[in-house]
Amino acid sequence: MLGDGHAGFGGRAGETHREQSRQGAPVRPINLSEAAERAVAQHRRCLRALVPAAPEPKPEPVPEEETSGSPWPTGHRFADRTRARHAAVHALLEAGHRRRSIQRQLCMTWRSVKQLADATRPEDLFTGQWQNRSSILDENKTYLDDRWNEGFTNAWKLWEEIVPLGYKGSYQRVRAYLHKKRTSPRPVAARPPSPRTVAGWILSRPETLTESEQLRLKTVRAHCPELDALTRHVRTFAVMLTECQGERLPHWLDAVRKDDLPSLHTLAAGIDRDLDAVIAGLTLPWNSGAVEGHVNRIKMLERQMFGRAGFHLLRKARPALHMTPRATLTHRRYSLRL
Asked: 140 near 162, Cβ under 8 Å?
């Protein structure tokens, strides 16, 4: 449950952690540590409070040639192609070529050459489909941006999430939108600490934490009521463990159930199944550490003898003894437990 499989919390594992806590080491009961880490992982969004806000990038100066109201900046493939074709047509016109000749040289239709030749500027051709056409994905872009900022970048999973929200477009459109995000340069931002790191702060004695760790833990607790409650429960449990106050355990279980911490609820349900033994382990000075030590020694011998205690070893030990495979395995099993 809380400690080793045979001893419960009052066994060898509980006594070890109790002794470590007296010496100033972190208080870390086995399953309480796992429950705390799961609780922190469920509220990992709160850890972003520890990341300083990235400075806003300075706006790049806009070239003068693009301040003429052009809806498409330099670098857009359709706009660049139109500008290049417009420049080629007007260069040939200035060189004295006729439109039919330009049509043959540039392999264009007569209508395309006429449109390019009649246009004074290439921006005059940016009409119709060029003018800020809406997309079926526009209503879901805010949701996609939020999920992207949370670190979820799987295009297929995001497409599956927005379909129930009313999106009727294709997966390829979502993939193309996220591809632009994936390939665009992004500022390097600091990463928040991992749930295991924050759980380590919560499970450690406050005086053993550095000043920076104490400040960061205080920030997390201020931004997340659930993690603040988790810290209080863990430290209350540590006091019960180190000072042998097992009679306070029922009140601790009632307080845990009042908060929205499913991982601690699971831990509390496990304690309830063996409540008297856990209270005794937290109160009495005796434990089953000696028995657990023998069990651990037997397991160690089994691991050391794995692959060696076979027929060859038994024949050398008892050459006159002929055993069936079943008898041999039985002999090996009991010989290792003597």
From this structure: yes
